[in-house]
Design brief:
- There is one protein chain.
- This protein is mainly β.
- Helices cover 5% and strands 36% of the residues.
- It has one helix and 31 strands.
- It has a four-stranded antiparallel β-sheet with strand order 1-2-3-4, with no helix packed on it. Strands 8-9-10-11 form a four-stranded antiparallel β-sheet, with no helix packed on it.
- Strand 5 and strand 6 form a beta hairpin.
- The longest helix has 21 residues.
- The protein is globular and about 60 Å long.
- It starts with a helix and ends with a strand.
Length: 407
């Protein structure tokens, strides 16, 4: 790319960042106005926990109680202490790493259901790699939150989205431009693919192909080993979500107001135009695709051909997160501080839960199944940028708050 094209691309990115700053105006303690918490379900010391990743801290909390995991215990059950004799807490503080800030949850490879007694963690989950906004990669022990490389692995740019980790490579999407593959053992750069603007969504790896979406309007298919471009498709607007793979097609939305069905050879098989930007990854259940947009609409489409089944507008403000779909409901969270349960067949609003002070709900939600053995309810977790109500758990049967987690 020549200098003039690079300058043009940077101006386009600046213009988009300004738009995004307006979109999330009023959020405190964020970088460039485009930050919100990330939630990740993990297993720590044999128990389900939720990582809350936001700003300069990563914390682990109990999914059913909202209580922070304050202490770390060893294999004998004894409380662990640091070199100074202080009780070790399960907290990653970016202040300990030159003011590191965190946008995305770490990639954690867990076998299907960590709530079942016979589930086993993938060996990759003993430690995880956490990319920062401040151009570094930290390797963290998942049970103790100990950082094994406090100096960090230097990156050439900051990271907004989750990385992808395999036995051989670490695929890193950079916030300003490009995606790179690092050697899993040496952390040396193996290849780099030039995107004209930032990569703000986790790439999708499938069958040796890495699918990358970018703010530059394109979805790219790359050879995962070499970085060679296999094809690219112009989606007519910025793309900030990970593609969904379903029955040999990719499904992805863009700021062109459209959702696309793309074959694995790079051909657009179908498209559907809604009313506004599509930010979140769609969800498909029983061959029906569900997604939302920034006008507050929720859509149900036939996954084969993207014909409309229903389109409803529960919120008068935007809906950024991907929906959660159950047998009965499509659950969405809006900028208006409310969570909506829609009838899965008709899209009509069945129930609304309005959170106190109506904070903007921009983070992807997290579904927590019921623990029937211990009488613990089915929950959906939503996060805001307000520290006094950072995470709220809503009971899926009563539609009311079960707990609120604050910093």
């Amino acid at each position: 790319m020549n200098i003039q094209k690079r300058q043009t691309a940077r101006w386009r990115l600046l213009a988009l960042v300004v738009l995004l700053a307006v979109f999330v105006a009023g959020c405190a303690n964020v970088r460039n106005g485009v930050s919100w918490p990330a939630l990740e379900l993990v297993e720590i010391d044999g128990e389900p926990r939720v990582l809350v990743v936001y700003d300069g801290r990563v914390e682990a909390i109990n999914p059913y109680q909202g209580a922070q995991l304050h202490v770390v215990r060893d294999s004998e059950g004894d409380v662990m202490r640091d070199a100074n004799g202080n009780v070790q807490e399960w907290v990653l503080d970016g202040g300990d790493f030159d003011g590191a800030q965190f946008f995305a949850a770490p990639p954690l490879e867990m076998n299907v259901d960590i709530f079942t007694e016979d589930s086993e963690s993938n060996p990759l989950s003993d430690t995880f790699l956490l990319a920062t906004y401040n151009n570094r990669l930290l390797e963290v022990d998942i049970d103790t939150a100990s950082v094994e490389n406090p100096a960090g692995i230097e990156l050439s740019n900051g990271v907004l989205a989750e990385i992808v980790v395999t036995d051989d490579f670490i695929y890193v999407p950079y916030r300003q431009q490009d995606v790179v593959a690092l050697d899993r053992e040496t952390y040396e750069e193996v290849w780099r693919f030039d995107t004209q603007e930032g990569v703000w969504a986790q790439p999708l790896l499938n069958d040796g192909v890495l699918y990358v979406t970018s703010v530059d309007h394109f979805v790219y298919a790359l050879d995962a080993n070499t970085g060679e471009e296999l094809w690219r498709v112009d989606l007519e607007g910025a793309v900030t979500s990970t593609p969904l793979l379903y029955e040999n097609h990719l499904y992805v939305g863009s700021y062109s107001h459209k959702i696309y069905q793309i074959s694995l050879d790079g051909t657009i098989a179908a498209e559907y135009e809604g009313t506004n930007w599509v930010w979140g990854t769609p969800v498909i259940q029983d061959n029906v695709l569900y997604y939302s947009d920034l006008s507050g609409y929720v859509y149900a489409l036939d996954a084969n051909g993207l014909t409309e089944i229903w389109a409803e507008r529960p919120s008068r403000k935007g809906i950024r997160p991907a929906p959660i779909v159950t047998d009965q409901y499509v659950v969405v969270a809006g900028r208006d501080g409310s969570v909506y349960w829609l009838n899965i067949d008709s899209g009509s609003t069945v129930q609304t839960a309005e959170l106190d002070n109506r904070p903007e709900l921009l983070s992807d939600m997290l579904y927590i199944p019921a623990d029937e053995e211990n009488g613990l309810p089915e929950l959906v977790l939503v996060a805001s940028t307000e520290n006094n109500r950072l995470v709220t758990a809503l009971n899926m049967e009563t539609f009311t708050p079960q707990w609120v987690y604050s910093r």
